[in-house]
Design a protein that fits this description.
Radius of gyration of chain A: 18 Å
Order of helices and strands of chain B: HHHHHHHHHHEEHHH
Helix content of chain A: 55-70%
CATH class of chain A: Mainly Alpha
Strand content of chain B: under 5%
Oligomer: heterodimer
Strand content of chain A: under 5%
Shape of chain A: globular
Largest sheet of chain A: 2 strands, antiparallel
Shape of chain B: globular
CATH class of chain B: Mainly Alpha
Strand order of the largest sheet of chain A: 1-2
Number of helices of chain A: 9
CATH superfamily of chain A: Ferritin, core subunit, four-helix bundle
Radius of gyration of chain B: 20 Å
Strand order of the largest sheet of chain B: 1-2
Chain lengths: ~250, ~325
């Protein structure tokens, strides 16, 4: 979903060079989505089950990924990708020693591309924060997006305990969230952006520090329905029943 | 170098920024390459919303890559145009935003449905490929060189477009009807892609004399029809009745009743005065203005640090 949002920047970014860079990032994220969907298909699901014919209320992505960009708000794109990519970096790290070999196999490729995304976002953050207008806009984006980004570490439901117990991931969400908060608040503070650490109650982020709609609990923003309708528009219009595969199975690549 | 020498020497990749080219040559080459670069950007602008609409993850991936490639071609071509010393890239991008920059006729029309994707990505790109392949022999070396990369990547785009067309053409009856309707709408525009017959084309003579162009509009249109009429038929598309096209079996060439095409519309489009095209131009301009603050703040920080501002990994 975040890749889908990034594509809104294609042919809309500030320069041709930044346009090509954000397109690259969108494609990397789409490519990673493809790898994970493919893994789910090994359990008997199909792409239509997972996306095209799925009930939009059943999606469990963080609402950070579905918020539309205001026109021209490049600071939002940069802050969002920074917050997201730092979180993804930690979440991927917790899968490197996964008890599932197929998960482990996918990590190497994904991690190397994510390193570039973090570098891209951090460089842009510094560049933008170096000027008055840019810093003001970065601050506004951080104020708005930080609670949504915290939602990236919210549990979907009790399945999170099974994921930890089975060793599918080697670090619980709480633990990763704590590190993420330290890293991003340190970086943002160092470039002159104000950000407060969230209040923690019983190991969880206090409700008032989370957004109204978290997403991972199944509760989405009003924007999600529109995005989902647009994404699935052609599939529905053409009355499709399957999704075209063009590439080799990633497990055979 | 005087014009007579240019005409004498006008072979493939004959001239580079090291040659002292007459202004007339540099202006003609700038006009041609700028048009080409603008077309890449406006084509990408037109197609971009369909990344979201693509009905499979892998189609999205392929489509996003294609749109990115077109931007890359624009970047490459503006550089080749800049190397003539007439206009800077910023100037050319400003002209595009202001509605002064010209671009391909097909990218002035709105695109509303996925079934129109192969009209651009197979037929228009296929037509462009014909022209671009001959431009690898252009006399302006940076242009010809850019065409090597462009043609290489366009080959993949056409395969992507053909694969979408093949899928629609072998799909449900509804899909087949939708794609036929789209084809009927787009076909006359696609034929007009190559412009009017050579005797009506204003810029051709000089561009051909100095080797910028290596093949005439008529020759290109013929080559396109020779390969794309059979391809369209192979996918079950019916060639629309207008304009009348007659196939000469003996010479294996196609004769088009050119007068049946709407040239008033074509020239309105060419002058950036067609409503749909104006909308595209202005919408892109607004999008570019909305991020002007980023370009301004980059310029500021560069000025403040004497060009030593941290570089983004872009």
């Amino acid at each position: 979903m975040i890749a889908d949002r990034y594509t809104d920047w294609q042919v809309h970014a500030p320069t041709i060079e930044s346009d090509i860079a954000i397109a690259n990032i969108a494609q990397d994220e789409l490519g990673h989505a493809r790898l994970w969907y493919d893994l789910l298909e090994d359990f008997g699901y199909t792409e239509p089950d997972l996306i095209w014919e799925r009930d939009p209320d059943a999606f469990r992505h963080s609402t950070l990924c579905e918020l539309p960009f205001a026109e021209g708000d490049w600071a939002d794109a940069i802050v969002r990708s920074y917050l997201y990519d730092e979180a993804e970096h930690l979440r991927l790290g917790a899968l490197e020693e996964s008890s599932s070999p197929r998960i482990r196999d996918r990590i190497g490729k994904v991690t190397s591309e994510e390193d570039y995304h973090r570098e891209h976002a951090e460089n842009w953050l510094r560049r933008l924060a170096g000027g008055d207008e840019g810093r003001k806009r970065v601050q506004e984006a951080v104020d708005r997006l930080f609670p949504y980004a915290l939602g990236l570490f919210e549990p979907v439901d009790e399945v999170e305990d099974d994921i930890d117990d089975l060793g599918l991931r080697t670090r619980p969400l709480e633990d990763m969230r704590a590190e993420w908060v330290e890293t991003v608040t340190d970086t943002l503070t160092a470039i002159g952006i104000d950000v407060e650490r969230p209040r923690i109650e019983d190991g969880r982020v206090a409700e008032e520090d989370l957004p109204e709609h978290v997403g991972r609990d199944g509760d989405h923003t009003e924007h999600w329905r529109t995005q989902f309708d647009e994404i699935t528009n052609t599939y529905r219009e053409l009355e499709r029943h399957d999704a075209t595969r063009l590439m080799e199975d990633p497990d055979d690549e | 170098m005087d014009l007579e020498t240019v005409k004498e020497r006008a072979g493939p990749r004959e001239f580079s920024p090291e040659d002292d080219m007459p202004e007339e040559y540099r202006k003609a080459a700038t006009r041609m390459i700028q048009f080409h670069a603008n077309s890449e950007i406006m084509g990408a602008y037109l197609e971009r919303p369909f990344i979201r609409e693509a009905p499979s993850v892998e189609r999205k991936l392929a489509y996003s890559a294609k749109v990115q490639d077109e931007l890359g071609h624009g970047q490459l071509l503006y550089r080749a145009a800049e190397s003539l010393g007439i206009k800077s890239r910023d100037q050319m991008l400003d002209e595009l935003a202001n509605g002064e920059g010209k671009f391909l006729n097909c990218f002035h029309y709105p695109m509303e449905s996925w079934v129109e994707v192969p009209m651009i990505a197979f037929f228009v790109d296929g037509a462009a490929m014909r022209r671009q392949a001959t431009l690898r022999r252009s006399s302006w070396e940076p242009y010809a060189h850019a065409m090597d990369k462009v043609c290489f990547e366009e080959g993949f785009h056409i395969k992507h477009g053909e694969s979408i067309l093949a899928e629609l053409a072998s799909g449900s009856k509804k899909e087949q009807e939708m794609v036929q309707n789209a084809f009927e709408t787009w076909w006359p525009r696609i034929i007009q892609f190559f412009g009017p017959t050579d005797d009506k084309s204003t810029h051709h003579d000089f561009a051909a004399e100095v080797g910028l162009k290596q093949m005439s509009n008529d020759g290109l249109r013929q080559a396109f029809l020779n390969s794309y009429v059979p391809k369209a038929e192979e996918y079950g598309l019916e060639i629309p009745d207008t304009p009348t096209i007659e196939h000469d079996e003996e010479t294996d060439t196609y004769e088009i009743a050119e007068d049946e095409l709407d040239w008033d519309e074509f020239f309105t489009v060419s002058k950036n005065e067609y409503e749909g095209g104006k909308h595209q131009i202005n919408a892109r301009k607004e999008a570019q203005e909305a991020v002007a603050w980023v370009r301004e703040s980059l310029d500021e920080s560069e000025a403040a640090t004497g060009g030593h501002a941290p570089q983004a990994a872009d």
